[in-house]
Amino acid sequence: MRVMKFGGTSVGNAERMRGVADLAAAARKQTRVMMVASAVSGITNLLLEAARAAQEGQPVESLHGRFEDVHRGIIRELAPELGEARQRSLEEGLSTLASELRGLLQGVGLLRECSPSVLAHLSGLGERAACLILGALMHARGLEPHAVEPRDVILCAGDPLQATPLQEETRARFTPLREAGGPGLMLMPGFFGGDTRGKTMCLGRGGSDYSAALAAAALDAELLEIWTDVDGIFSADPRLVPEAFPLPEVSFEEAMELAYFGAKVLHPKTIAPARERGIPVRVCNSFRPDHPGTRVTDDAAPPEHPVRGLSFLPGIALVNLGGAGLKGVPGTAARVFESMALANISVVLITQGSSECSISFCVQQADAERAVQALEVAFEMERAAGKVDTIEQQRGLAVLSIVGDGMRHRVGVAGTFFSALADVGCSIAAIAQGSSERSISAVIAETDGPRALAHVHGRCFGTTEVVELLLAGVGSVGGELLKQVHQQAPKLRAHGVDLRVCVIANSKRVATASEGIPLEDWKQRLAASSDGAPLDAFRDWARAKRPGRPVFVDCTSSEDIALAYPSLMEAGLHVVTANKKANAGQWSHYRKLRETASRHQRRFLYETNVGAALPVIDTLKNMLRTGDRVLRVEGILSGSLSFILGLTEEGVPLSQAVGTAMEKRFTEPDPRDDLHGTDVARKVLILARELGRQVELEQVTLDSLLPSDFDATGPLDDFLARLPQVDAAFQRRVETLRAEGKVLRYVGSVTEDGCFVGLVPVPLTHPLAAVKGGENALSFTSERYSPTPLVIRGYGAGAAVTAAGVLADVLRLVDGPLP
Ligand code: ADP
Ligand code: ASP
Ligand code: MG
């Protein structure tokens, strides 16, 4: 005997019904078959909506009309197969159901009341209509299914909308159907049974799975098949996590935990009856009958990963009972949960801290108000005596769970889970672990759910990790960064990293695309986009909480943007910056950046602030972290000045050398930032702060490269026009030094005495003398590196290396191994 349950989408239209008939006919050739069918998809919702409308005195005609139209449409399409006589009798049958519905809705409308019994009866009409049609189709194919009336066989008690089946009695009622000689093909509507008087009792939303499991147990079936619209049970809801994959096998326990915590593919009570009788369950796709689907068995192979799957249960509220007077009082928990039982409220999850001063538990949001009231009544005396001071509810929550037999006795699973939640800035309202170590659940904000689910999934299974890049500034560095991302993205994708540029902004325009902006024509996209405030666009993006790791990348030199980093981190963005203004701003802002990053668990990375992509900041951090004491840092920190000075040594006049550097985009947008030494001073300041010194920019002693009597003020063009005035004197200085065997170098240093920036003549034998043509060089003298210092040297300017440094910072956010 095999029980085959067909879900709503499997009987969703004429075409689907034919598919069901094919599947059942094929199975019938091998064994006896009991088919259990749901309502046509959408019909149960429609019926519930009609009942609500009637109760509120609203018109129900159109809803009622839709019920008839949908079914009549299917019958019409099946007509050629049914034949005229069968079609007519089917239409009569449907009319009977439709007038039953009309009568019920009229009654509800008159009384403005819909009792649970009435609602149960009304809800079951969808399954009855679907089976009527399916039965006729099977008959037309000569299959003669025996119609089973669930109210006669599935005996239930309790709440008519969440009925409890009585399994012994049900089994007894199934006896004639079970015994040899019973019907070979049966068809039964799912979702409901009946009470002792034959009144309809619903098994709860999605309950057709449960009907099928009860039938399978009562019929001693050798297999229970749940035919649905996906390839089995997935590692997570495929609608929420596109990377989720179907699981070939899961254990009964895993299936129960997944279903209980929200995997809608199975009604949570489905597994128990099958498991009691050792009946294997197969979840499979009626759209792809050849796919093996998922087998749920007692002997599921251990999974490759400790976690088998994730589930997500939205619409949850956390109820909290707290008070110092609860500590050590026996029976408190019993009273809490007794009051829930009396109010007929089912408790989803429980947590209690070791202080015993509070008990928290989750219920469906719809039950939360009643749960609070029930507690208020139960603890009235304690409240009056001040022993209980809080009874509150927190709404808008969801339970995210990881489930797997392989989690038992495995270390680090919870660590991965919670750190993944922290990655996406998701705060946790409560935690629970099943005593079997098979599940761990975190209660989080429902709005965080999809994003958290996708990220935890990526961390647990090493599937593709999405990094969303939000870029401000498309000048030379920003433009180069986009080029490099475009080039590297395919290779990164092959390593499981989906790096998407989702927002691109300059000072006026903002282009966005959640799937990533096509980088071959980002310029056109940006030009065609609407005007917008970039900072608002970045914050809005972060707040929309899409799945993925959003990182804000600053390739501007804007002070306003640098000031906004804390608010961007608060909104959930990691920050990578090539802009020195943030770290070289006021000390208070410098501290605030770090505090905000730490409070919101955001990364703040700025390797390119000094020496472009040269590993300066990282090296310094590592020296300090490992206990070295840095005594002195000095070097050539401006690629642009190193380039300009190199040219002057070859006899190029200073003004011309500046022009060439500008053309090559080696300078800051305004070259005076370089020539004055301000840019180098900022880098020296950043290095000093990295060493823990609380200094401000004004405290850096600074000697401009330009003579002090030269007027460098005014608009840029005027300044450039005047610049040749200094050429002759500068050239003389260079030549005089050359005669002495020396060269001029623009050097920045942090010593025990302070921070200095300025032109220094160095002998040709000095290591810094060789550094020119856009190079940077830094030497770190420390307790470990002395007397020979640690030296880092290489290109430290130019868009290409800076952009590469920025990209390297972005990729530091990725967990998995990269190429
Ligand atoms: P049916 O009408 O066949 O009973 P349901 O809509 O009740 O179908 O359940 C199938 C749906 O369950 C899938 O389309 C999927 O979106 C959802 N779902 C949630 N979690 C999971 C999961 N872990 N694996 C598969 N499907 C899931
Ligand atoms: N049709 C019912 C529902 O939508 C039962 C089911 O589909 O399992 O809840
Ligand atoms: Mg279902």
UniProtKB/TrEMBL annotation:
Enzyme Commission number(s): 1.1.1.3, 2.7.2.4
Domain ACT per the UniProt entry, residue ranges: 402-474
Catalytic activity, as annotated: L-aspartate + ATP = 4-phospho-L-aspartate + ADP; L-homoserine + NAD(+) = L-aspartate 4-semialdehyde + NADH + H(+); L-homoserine + NADP(+) = L-aspartate 4-semialdehyde + NADPH + H(+)
Gene Ontology molecular function, alphabetical: aspartate kinase activity; ATP binding; homoserine dehydrogenase activity; metal ion binding; NADP binding
Keyword ATP-binding included in the entry's annotation: yes
Recorded metabolic or biological pathway in which this protein acts: Amino-acid biosynthesis; L-methionine biosynthesis via de novo pathway; L-homoserine from L-aspartate: step 1/3; Amino-acid biosynthesis; L-threonine biosynthesis; L-threonine from L-aspartate: step 1/5; Amino-acid biosynthesis; L-lysine biosynthesis via DAP pathway; (S)-tetrahydrodipicolinate from L-aspartate: step 1/4; Amino-acid biosynthesis; L-methionine biosynthesis via de novo pathway; L-homoserine from L-aspartate: step 3/3
PANTHER family membership: HOMOSERINE DEHYDROGENASE, PTHR43070
Complex and partners: Homotetramer.
Protein name in the entry: Aspartate kinase/homoserine dehydrogenase
Source species of the chain: Myxococcus xanthus (strain DK1622)
Taxonomic lineage: Bacteria, Pseudomonadati, Myxococcota, Myxococcia, Myxococcales
